[in-house]
Amino acid sequence: MSCCRLGWLSLLAACGAAPVVEPVESAPPPVTGTSSLTIVDASLRARAQLLFAKALDDNVAIATLRDLCTVAPKRLSGSPGAEAAVRWSIDQMLGMGLQNVHAEPVLVPCWVRGVESARVVGDGRELRITALGGSIGTGAQGVTAELLEVRSFEQLRELGDRARGKIVFFNRPMPRALRRTGQAYGEAVPQRSNGAIEAGKAGAVAALVRSMTTTIDQWPHTGAMRYEDGVPMVPAAAVCTEDAELLAARLKQGAVRVQLQLGCETRPDVMSANVVGELRGSSRADGIVVIGAHLDAWDLGTGAHDDGAGCVHVLEALRLLQACGIQPKRTIRAVLFMNEENGLRGAEAYARAHAAERHVAAIESDSGGFTPQGFTCSLSGEAAEAVRAQFRPLDEFGAGIFLAGGGAGGADIAPLGAQGAALFGLMVDGQRYFDYHHTAVDTIDAVHERELAMGAATLAYAASVLADR
Asked: Of 124, 146, 452, 469, which has the maximum CB count within 10 A?
């Protein structure tokens, strides 16, 4: 959700990959004397100052995000909202005067939520739940069964036949002790991604998963889950952390039965699109720099942070470069990807369609609209240090963190890495991200206008530097 470092963390977790090891930040090498690097840094510092001043003074980013969240608030791939978002994006790019603006068709899944409810049998206590994306429904009668609480897949397997006929309650919290919330998410999210598979293997009738947040609150968090061929499919839902704590306390006192009803269903695939537009380079035709975010969003809130903010970062970055008269040498291509949340088909389709082009670099924004802190980077060694030196002017704005060897940069641009592109992920202050991620409160009210504007300026600066290399 996720960088998005969050997006690729969840992707790795969903695929059963090994735990992610955070890259180690090293101190930049000192700059001494009056070398050409010092002169370049002075020019780049002026560029960064211009972009940040323009972004904060114009304050266009928040208005653009408000417009997106108003025109297309529910834009899960395959939905009418997603199609409205495609039309909105094309209009925005044309209005900005970008070149080569077009939609690139992609076939996407169509999953519909429907009614959803849960209650404790006996006292009728209502539980705040939401279906996980891709889940099957329960049928009109719902599912009623005893809860079985576990903290890991290993524990579930050890219980053997005790899970048969039960609702498996996966109650592993995101580890609060981890400083980087994306890493905490990566450690806990397999229970959401693969919980229904493990519950099906154990003979359970449903999976109920603790929401992915460190906060104890009343908002259930949705997100993608999956099934496995040959394993019985069972419905899966997330429960808010307040109710997860309640259920855990009640289970200590004795058996708890829950009635769960989900009306969700998967319909036939529908045609949607990625949206592409360019700020043409002035002098170099030997490569393209992509800046991207995902246009789709879960249907509970309006996708303001995930990933409306990223879309606005991308659009605003190109607006800022034009407004400040900064003409990149290479073309910077904006790509708003469809279907990141529940399939990555947009990412795969873009990589296939443009495999013959040379992408020298790609940057993704999918961590929310919070205060920018810097970038992850797939490069290492001397190549990484050369870019780090040019990114150094971002230190002045608190966005100078540079994590070399930092992985795929984001789920949507990851396929470009296999084609040779250097990958970068925009890092932001993520401490509050999972308060909103995939919930009904991921709305415009959760986004601070100055933080959003600074993120756009950070992306604009990075893209322009990479395009000039």
From this structure: 452
Is residue 265 part of the annotated active site? The answer reads no
172-176-182 Cα angle (round to 5): 90
Distance between CA atoms of residues 188 and 186, nearest Å: 6
**How many residues can be counted in the chain?**
469
CA dist 134 and 264 (Å) reads: 8
Q: Are 214 and 174 in contact (CB under 8 A)?
A: yes
**Which residues does 30 contact at the CB level (< 8 Å), separation at least 6?**
none
The candidate with the shortest Cα–Cα distance to 457, out of 91, 98, 61, is 61
Residue 236: which of 189, 269, 202, 200 has the closest Cα?
200
* DSSP calls for 346-393: HHHHHHHHTTTS-EEEEEE--S-SS-EEEEEES--HHHHHHHHHHHGG
Instruction: Compute the mean pLDDT over every residue in the chain, rounded to the nearest whole number.
Output: 92
Catalytic residue among 149, 198, 316, 340: 340
pLDDT digits (tens, 9 = 90+) for 23-65: 333 333 333 333 344 555 899 999 999 999 999 999 999 999 9
pLDDT of residue 236: 98
Residues of the chain with pLDDT under 70: 1-40
For the domain made up of 114-263, the CATH class stated in words is: alpha beta
Enter the pTM of the model. 0.90
Fold of 5-109+268-468: Aminopeptidase (3.40.630)
Residues of the chain with CATH 3.50.30.30: 114-263
- Please give the backbone phi and psi of residue 416, each rounded to the nearest 5 degrees, phi first: -70, -25
